[in-house]
Amino acid sequence: MKKFSGIEKVAIFLSIVGDEIATEIFKHLDSQELARIVPLMTKIEVTPEEINMVVEDFHKAAGTVLIGVDEEYIRKILINAFGQSEVEKLMERIEGGGSAFDMLRWLDSSSITNMLLREHPQTIAIVLAHLESTQASEVLSKLPEHLKVSVSLKIANLHQVSPVVLKELEDVLQGQMQKHTRGKKVGGARTVAEILNQMDRASEDLILKSIEERDKELAEEIRKLMFTFDDLIHIDDRGIQMLLKEITTDDLALSLKMASDELKAKIFKNMSQRAVQILKEEMETRGAVKVSDVEKAQVNITKTAKRLEEDGRIVIGGKGEEDVVV
Q1: What is the predicted pLDDT for the residue at 187?
Q2: Is residue 20 part of a domain?
Q3: Rounded to 5 degrees, what are φ and ψ at 69?
Q4: Do 234 and 301 lie in a common domain?
């Protein structure tokens, strides 16, 4: 198994924790650290075993910091952050150890579906019964029609599974997961772009400038993959109207404070005269606002636009996107 340097471990860790957590961590790093870490995130390839090793290293480091803190204190913090029901699920996972079923909960539904397609419906039923209902429903929806009904019936009639069968199934799943995820690439330019999309403009510019000094082609690739507030200009009128239904007036009023005249005109064109009048009055009465508040509102709107695109409800054209033929 390959040994990674400290900076490589950080790059791997930031690539697998998700863009929201990575964004928060980025805010606490200086420009030199970011310039070393971000390029690595686009290039490192690791096996599932190596990912586990890196996570374990971070777990040990965190354990060292948390010596003397009791479980109740940790539970209280988690409840404040996530709520009682979510914390109970989280603690159940932690206390349950790292079984194959636990590992499945961290995979996306498409990967799980591909793993299970050739399995017997009874096997699929047992696996889905061990997943959380939201994840199980996503997997079930991706199965062929003839399997959906069969698997659903078997889940409904599933009452108790012997420990021997579960152990055999776990061994099979472990092998399947290694086969489907071996050599998986983490990070990449797209991951960095998604993280930067959620950061304030100053941090975004700083990171991209640092990357550009080391690798101009990589910086350009990341820019092409990024979707910024200014790129809303490339959404057609129908898409803008759909977006306006999904965002708050508060975010819209704030975000337009630093928008181009062209983008403002596009937004106003897709609103009623009365709505435009109210919005303009809202913007005027606010007076001076913090740049950070404007940027936060713009991030909220771009995230909503990306969600609508992923749901297939709007099409985002412009940089980083393919042409659309109607």
Answers
A1: 56
A2: no
A3: -95, 125
A4: yes
